[in-house]
Amino acid sequence: MSRKVLFGSEITLRPIRFRDRAQWNQVRVENKDWLTPWEATLPSVPEGFSAAENLRRRPTFYEMVQTLHREARAGRSYSFLIWHGKNLVGQITMGGVTYGALRGAHIGYWIDRNFANRGFTTQAVELLTEYGFSQLGLHRIEINVRPENGASCRVAEKAGFEFEGYRKAYLHIDGAWRDHKCFVKNNELIV
Q1: Measured between alpha carbons, how far is 159 from 4 in angstroms, rounded to an integer?
Q2: Helix crossing, 120-134 with 150-158: angle to 10°?
Q3: What are the CA-CA distances from residue 45 to residues 37, 48, 64 (Å)?
Q4: Which pLDDT tens digits describe the chain residue by residue (191 residues)?
Q5: Which of 11, 60, 78, 88 could form a disulfide with 23 if both were Cys (CB 3.0 to 4.6 A apart)?
């Protein structure tokens, strides 16, 4: 599953590889100011929690790739780089994949500011949602967005997700617990 490639009309979604390091790092550095207000951050974890030491730093690129591949093999999360031709333009992840009675997941993404407002993010969301519904048999997929991120809210709406409500202090973003708007799309074929 971790090697699945998804093709759209203008973009390709491909799992991240070790050899993508230079391009990924370059895009991330060039977009640091653009992405920081929307990026997940690590909250302070009090001493004494068993996993606290592992939560004190971000993983290296290689650790990240290994983790993403392991999670895909386990069927828990699917992360793809977004390519427009030879240009790395972003990343999208469908995480928190749960089966059983829920059969759901959530999608998160980022886009290079030089490729924003061209429909690539919406197309990536549509491709990954279709994969979740048709290949994984999911029933419900969520996109949770900070209310101030109007562009990202529009992506969710254009991809057919409906606003469901607000989530108070939902994710740790840019150094604090932030409220989010929840958008949802259901797979009506799963009964």
Answers
A1: 21
A2: 50
A3: 21, 9, 20
A4: 446 999 999 999 999 999 999 999 999 999 999 999 999 888 877 776 655 555 557 789 999 999 999 999 999 999 999 999 999 999 999 999 999 999 999 999 999 999 999 999 999 999 999 999 999 999 999 999 999 999 999 999 999 999 999 999 999 999 999 999 999 999 988 77
A5: 88
Domain positions in the chain are 6-186
Q: CA 171, CA 174: separation in Å to the nearest integer?
A: 10
Q: Which residues contact 115 (CB under 8 A, 6 or more apart)?
A: 84, 87, 89, 90
Which residue type does 22 have? A
- Do 104 and 88 touch, CB atoms closer than 8 A? no
Find all residues with CB under 8 Å of 148, minimum gap 6, and list them: 37
Q: Which helix (H) or strand (E) holds 25?
A: helix 21-30
pTM higher than 0.85: yes
